[in-house]
Specification:
The complex is a heterodimer. By secondary structure, chain A is an alpha+beta fold. Chain A has four helices and six strands. Chain B has one domain (3-193): Rossmann fold, CATH 3.40.50. Helix content of chain B is 32%, strand content 28%. Chain B has helices at 25-35, 86-93, 110-126, 151-158, 176-193, and strands at 3-5, 10-18, 45-48, 54-67, 70-78, 98-104, 136-141, 165-167. Classes of the chains: A alpha+beta, B alpha/beta. The interface between A and B is large, with 39 and 45 residues.
């Protein structure tokens, strides 16, 4: 069984800071961090006009399908994907085998710059992910659900 | 895999609708989408073939209200039902928190239901899940069709462990929300139990 992902404010803040810095340094339009199940962890940049929930789900589906292709070819996984559009481009990479870093950029940036900046940001993100794992292990068994009663759940479904 | 975000105060879970081809998985999601307030749902995505059969998955993000200040958000997915899309089905089951098995009540689809249910169990096991330990409900869909088999017979064949089950007509909405609520509730109870 997979363990659940719990993100506390302290780590969330660190992740957002790294995404903000990457957004700036890579001259990107937007930066997203998504887990492999399609849940959005953080985003930065021009995200107002984007359907971020759908973007997260499709990115995870894309990574899952590409991972399936990799296995068929005897590869462990394809860690990086790049999609080139007429205006916008998407760079997708795996960080720590667990989360997906998505960069949307246009002609103001370049693939080379994005790859360079992603590499640096990935190692920082990997460190924070380790912290999240450690904290999860420390707090195992203690979640928001400690305060939620069966009655609360019943009430939600009327 | 559920995701609890203390910063945005959200509990996120993943529910997968499984079942044989043309049993009505997508129709379930379409009905939920049509009958849910715009502020409680996101966009529904359907990755389908030219003939509107599900190619990879359908996706519908849904909010079911707040518990103790935490928003409960459910990501609903369907799998492609056709037998040859097994690789895609396996991918979509990754990280699942709860499963709905949608059975087609028509007598001529009984074998397809059984095959799909076995396939669900196998695909879950491949990823370390045990269907008997997951939040899981069964829906007998297409109850309005003349060739629909008696629900008791379907229960015997498809629900030996007697998980919560519901008769449904997804095109009209009968049983659709009952099914969703039952699985969502089980998911939250299981999270509380701290699996």
């Amino acid at each position: 069984m997979n363990s659940q992902l719990v993100l506390f404010e302290e780590e969330q803040k660190k992740i957002v800071e790294i995404c903000d810095a990457l957004h700036h340094d890579a001259c990107a339009k937007a930066v997203f961090l998504v887990n492999r199940d399609g849940q959005m962890l953080a985003n930065s940049g021009e995200t107002v006009h984007l359907d971020t929930t759908s973007l997260a789900s499709l990115t995870a589906g894309n990574i899952a399908a590409t991972g399936g292709l990799a296995q068929l070819l005897g590869e462990k996984e394809f860690a990086i994907q790049f999609h080139e559009g007429e205006r916008d481009n998407i760079h997708i990479s795996l960080v720590g085998h667990r989360v997906i870093l998505v960069i949307i950029f246009d002609e103001r940036s370049s693939l080379g710059l994005v790859r360079l900046r992603v590499k640096r940001a990935s190692s920082k993100l990997a460190e924070v992910l380790e912290e999240i794992n450690a904290k999860a292990a420390e707090n195992r068994g203690h979640t928001v659900f400690d305060e939620i009663s069966d009655e609360d759940i019943d009430n939600l479904f009327g | 895999m559920s995701f609890i975000n203390y910063s945005s105060r959200e509990i996120n879970c993943k529910i997968v609708y499984y079942g044989p081809g043309l049993c009505g998985k997508t129709t379930n999601l379409q009905y939920i989408y049509a009958k849910t307030n715009p502020d409680a749902k996101g966009k529904m995505i359907s990755l389908e073939t030219e003939t509107e059969r599900t190619l990879f998955f359908d996706f519908l993000p849904l909010s079911l209200g707040e518990i103790r200040g935490f928003k409960t958000r459910f990501h609903l997915y369907t799998v492609p039902g056709q037998v040859f899309y097994d690789a895609s089905r396996k991918l979509i089951l990754k990280g699942v928190d709860g499963v709905v098995f949608v059975a087609d009540s028509q007598v001529e689809r009984l074998d397809a239901n059984i095959e799909s249910l076995e396939n669900l169990r196998e695909n879950l096991e491949e990823q370390g899940y045990d269907l008997d330990k997951l939040p899981y409900v069964v829906q007998y869909n297409k109850r309005d069709l003349p060739t629909a088999v008696d629900a008791g017979y379907l229960r015997e064949a498809l629900n030996p462990t007697r998980v919560p089950d519901f008769e449904a007509v997804a095109t009209t909405g009968m049983g659709v929300f009952d099914t969703l609520k039952a699985v969502a509730k089980q998911v939250l109870i299981e999270l509380k139990r701290g699996r």
